[in-house]
Every structure is written in structure tokens, then in C-alpha cells.
Amino acid sequence: EKAGRDAGDIINRNKTGIIIREVSQIEQVLGETHTDVVIDFSNPANSKALLRACKKNRTSAVLCTTGYSEGDMLWMTDFVRHNKLGLVFAPNVTLGVNVLLAALRLVARALPSFDYHVTETHHSKKYDIPSGTAKKIAAALEEELPVGADIPIDAVRAGGYVGMHTVLLASDYERLSLTHESFSRRAFVEGALTAAEFIVSRIGWYEMEDVLGMRIAAQHAASAVS
Q1: Whether the model pTM is above 0.90
Q2: In CATH, what is the architecture of 7-92+187-208?
Q3: Which one of 55, 117, 126, 135 is the catalytic residue?
Q4: How confident is the model over 97-151, as pLDDT tens digits?
Q5: Residue 126 is among the residues annotated as catalytic for this protein
Q6: Beta-strand relationship, 115-122 and 86-89
Q7: Which of 122, 136, 165, 180 is catalytic?
Q8: Has domain 95-183+218-225 been given CATH number 3.40.50.10540?
Q9: What is the per-residue DSSP string for 1-55?
Q10: Element (H or E) spanning 176, and its range?
């Protein structure tokens, strides 16, 4: 329906000169345009074809898609490393939520006896439940908390919410709540461009913590806490 049309027509703006192409044409398009970085916001079904096209054209990638299976993840990480590609895996590419992830690692180390609960809220048409970001938050907490820690996730689908993630932690005597909310899709654009600038000259598998330098900062902070 959109293939062959100018991108400006689709968003009701002036013509841009950018023609929408089918996903099946990705290899041809990369060859014609000499693209430095592909930013993917589509769906997991396209990722293998996209990465094979990136391999052929030596193009880096930023994957901002959610809903990958464990098998998908194993295939992608192996493919990227074996073929020496540059890739940022960013199921939530917004800058703020990735700072939240780093902060939560510190909180979990400092408060390992608290109970943790994740709630995510998105628009009614979002199909993956829970969100990839909520699962990433829970996984990060599980890495830092004692073995066997249970991190429940609640999901809400309502109206036009862009995206909100809240982590509630509580003991018998006190409570702490941390929330990140995207109220404009521009937040995803800013994060994706930051990731693209980071990966254009690198090889390997990276995540947004690497892009923002938060992984190193978190490691230093962990040493200080211990």
C-alpha cells in the first residue's frame, strides 16, 4: 500500500524525495544508496533478511524492534559476531529508559531484600505483552538480586499511551517508585540517531547501555557499593 510512494505523501507533508520500498528490496536498496546505518522499527520477521543485507553491503544496524524469541536472539548474536557486523540492539531506544535501567541495577544492589514489581502501559494496538522493555527491566533486576527473585510484570493496553514503565519496590516499612514515560515519539528518534552515530564506526554487538556509557559507569558504581 505504501511502497512506491514518497514518504512526504504518507505523512501528509511536502515531498521528500525518499521513496518507500518493500522490505524484500532491502538488499538492493542498501547497494544503491551506500547506507552507513540501517535503523529498524519494523518487526522481528524482517530481521534475518535485514542482517543478511547488512552483511553483504557492510552496513551497520540499530534494531529498535521488540517481540524476539530466544531463538531469534541466539541467531542474531551469532550472526553479528561471526560476520563482524556493527549492531545496537535497542528494544527501547529512548535515552531516559536506558538511564532508568542503569539506575535500577544500583538500586537492586543496594536494596536486595525489597520486593520488586514492574508495570508497563502502552497504546491499545501494541501487540507484544509484556513489552520488550519491561522484560529487559525484569532481566536486569534478576541479574542483580538474589537467585530466585520473582519480578512480576503487569501490562496495560489503553488509548494512545506512547509508553510508560514503572518499577515499584517495597519493604515492610517503606516504598520507592521509579517511572519513565515517553509522551512523544520524538524520544525514539533522538535515541535511534544517537545509537546510529555510535555504531557507524564500530564492530560488534552493543546495547544502549554501551551507547550511553552507562555499563562502564555501573561497573564502577558496583565496585564502590561492594
Answers
A1: no
A2: 3-Layer(aba) Sandwich (3.40)
A3: 126
A4: 999 999 999 999 999 999 999 999 999 988 889 988 899 899 999 999 999 999 9
A5: yes
A6: unpaired
A7: 122
A8: no
A9: --TTSBHHHHTTSS--SPBP--GGGHHHHHHHHT-SEEEE-S-GGGHHHHHHHHH
A10: strand 175-182
